[in-house]
Specification:
Elements: E1 9-12, H1 14-17, H2 37-45, E2 50-53, E3 57-59, E4 66-72, H3 79-91, E5 95-100, E6 104-105, H4 110-118, E7 147-148, E8 151-156, H5 162-179, E9 183-186, H6 194-207, E10 212-215, E11 233-234, H7 237-248, H8 252-266, E12 274-276, H9 285-288, H10 295-304, E13 308-312, H11 345-359, H12 362-365, E14 367-373, E15 377-384, E16 387-394, E17 400-405, E18 410-414, E19 420-423, E20 427-432, E21 436-442, H13 443-511, H14 532-546, H15 551-559, H16 563-571
Parallel strand pairs: 1-2, 1-13, 2-5, 5-9, 9-10, 10-11, 12-13
Antiparallel strand pairs: 3-4, 6-8, 7-8, 14-15, 15-16, 16-21, 17-20, 18-19, 18-21
Helix pairs in contact: 5-6, 7-8, 10-11, 14-16
Amino acid sequence: MAWFEEAIFYHIYPLGLTGAPKKNDYGEPVSRLTQLAPWIEHVKEIGCNAVYIGPLFESVGHGYETTDYKKLDSRLGTNEDLKKFVTDCHNMGIRVILDGVFNHTGRDFFAFKDMQKNRENSQYKDWYCNVNFYGNTEYNDGFSYENWGGYNLLVKLNQQNPQVREYIADVIRFWVKEFDIDGIRLDAADVLDFSFMKMLRAVANEVKEDFWLMGEVIHGDYNKWANDETLHSVTNYQLHKALYSGHNDHNYFEIAHTVKRLYEMFSGSGVKLYNFVDNHDVERINTKLQNKNHFTCVHIMLYTLPGIPSLYYGSEYGIDGRKERGSDDSLRPCLNIKEMPGENEKLSLISKLAKIRKQYPVLAAGSFEELRLTNRQYVFARAEGENRIYIAVNNDEAGCELCFPVRKAGNYVGLLSGKVYRAEGDMLHVSLPPESGEIWLEEGLRQTLAEKESIRVKTAEKKTIIEKQEQEAETRLEREAAERQQREQEEKARLEREAAERQQREQEEKDSPKREEWAVIDRSKSYEEMSIQELQAVIYEKMAKNGPVTDRMKQDILENVYHNSLVTWAKSF
């Protein structure tokens, strides 16, 4: 199996976890990413072997309005900080994937800034969708464009543009070469162009063995996105919804129906969906569950149903998080690992489930079979050859007796409780306490599977160490040369930038508007009938009523000599 098929993910929203400012002033970098060092140890301790972290790159606010794809957000530190983070994770056997925000950019992105400056003459005007130089927005750019989600802060990229495609492909290659990441979670994958995703898959196949592409998809037929040509996996929002509502309504039929439909959808392809119970966009599972004791059942299912399980930082402690007045801030809190509760039932459960999942690979690779289903009890099996594991959950406030078919007579050990039940024939009779679950395994297979897994893990770890040593020896000199070249280029760029800024300041001072006389406005005319000079005078007059008009504002008015744009601007007041 590829590494991601056996992964247990830990999801980190770094701007929130580190307590970074909500707005980026593009000042000197502050190395907040280094605060995550103890979290990496925690991730390892609770059994996770992969981290999804993001967004990471320079942006204006929440991280998804990218300003620079090749620079760590100044609020988090420098590129060296990100290199160290990935290296530290790899040294502990933890893979790293990060956010790829390729559907849109922020307004401070270089291509958009060029379009603001050069308008129709910008070489980047076709990098964005539906740019209209006769339109306008609340930013008074003198043009409009297609955005994402109704937010003009997020400018939609033209994914069919060959230059855009090559630029994004270069970004991915840079991330792998510079940071040695293991995959990408594609933001807003459900609105990405399918041919664009095929291009991304080709790049993924090129840059690194088993480089993983996972996409954020909420609704629809997941196999449209997750297949051999586009993405390896997508976010399983359908199971996410079923897991909490199925418990809140005491309705395991909803969960079972969702699981069966998704399993049948991908039974022939081997695709494994990215399962989760909460993330940076939805309320915490502990908040959504009406009965907090259902935390146990929910997480047993997360770790044992088909798919790749993921935890969102802090939820292993049972913290709450609710959307408040349209804000996601409470979903993305700043946490100090040293201040988190010590060992408790929730944390212990999470650690046990991770250990079981890694010890018995049948939970990652095995087939799925439903064995018993009621509104309040659900029994299913995961099987691969003779290896067969049985899982049962009970969402009732009372204990229950269950009977379900097993492979053969014999003793069956509860991997969570240690209790042993004996099947006299091909039926196993068990008891489950209220709001609980259990995972059973044939007693004779227990030791054999554990020994096989131990050998497999040691062999894989040894192979990883050897490969890493070879790779480090091969790339060290190349990296040093690249770093020297980058420093030289950065110094050259700095000198050129300073010279350009001086020249721009001198030009702005020279071009600063001197005219204080504005055209006489013929108020009998409509805006469409007015001349450019009259429209400029109208806009100046309207601005003056709202407060002082700066030289910069006057210059913006005088430089706009496009009649339709001025009409739109005048009407916007």
